[in-house]
Amino acid sequence: MPTIEQPLRILIAEDQAMLRGALTALLNLEDDLSVVGSVGDGESAWRELQRLAPDILVTDIEMPGLSGLELAQRIQRHELPVRVVIVTTFARGGFLRRALDAGVSGYLLKDAPAEQLADALRRVHHGGRVIDPQLALEAWSEPDPLSERERQILRLAGEGMSATGIAAQLRLSHGTVRNYLSEAIGKLGVGNRIEAYRLARQKGWL
Q: Which of 139, 161, 185 is the endpoint of a domain?
């Protein structure tokens, strides 16, 4: 007798409760898809990934505590056997490039039709990659000049943290933090850390 394929087991990580509920309901309408868990932040997603061992993680980028990109990077480092699909409002090449570097298999925008997401999950499960073509072109048109450490420090500075505070949090010297900020400002060709933060956010590099 032919074996009956089990539904794909999906974990959803999305900080907007209404959207999280809608995604869960829509995907559960598909006979071959099953949402086994849904959470509202990255750290909860990490715990549930290890507890539930889903086939696919559907995640947003911006979430409290741990972003979708940081979550994908952590999954990659720990070599968890789960494919990652990002569903976001951020149609920026910089985000896509970082997502691909983190091993993400799919990158879709939230205004895409629901059936497109379901089809993307099936394709990703079978080893495919689902990326918006125009976004993919944009991702390689302007490379990200920032290092991972410069990005981390610039993000904290843009959120209002002082160089002293950043140094304490990251266990670096005050001078080292100032050097990283200076390097980032120089690479982006702007006048100060706030302008650097805004430009990097606009490009999707943060």
A: 139
Residues 159 and 125 in one domain: no
Identify residue 132 by its one-letter amino acid code: D
CA 116 distance to own-chain centroid: 19
Measured distance CA(21)–CA(33) in Å, rounded: 15
The string of pLDDT tens digits covering residues 10-44 is 999 999 999 999 999 999 999 999 999 999 999 99
- What is the rounded CA–CA span in Å between residue 181 and residue 138? 26
CATH number of the domain bearing residue 195: 1.10.10.10
CA 132/CA 117 separation, integer angstroms:
12
Entry pTM: 0.70
Compute the distance between CA of residue 81 and CA of residue 84 in angstroms, rounded to an integer: 10
Domain holding 177, by residue range, is 148-203
116-152 as b/e: b if 16+ CB within 10 A? ebbebbeebbeeeebbbeebeebbeeeebebeeebbb
CATH number of residue 119's parent domain: 3.40.50.2300
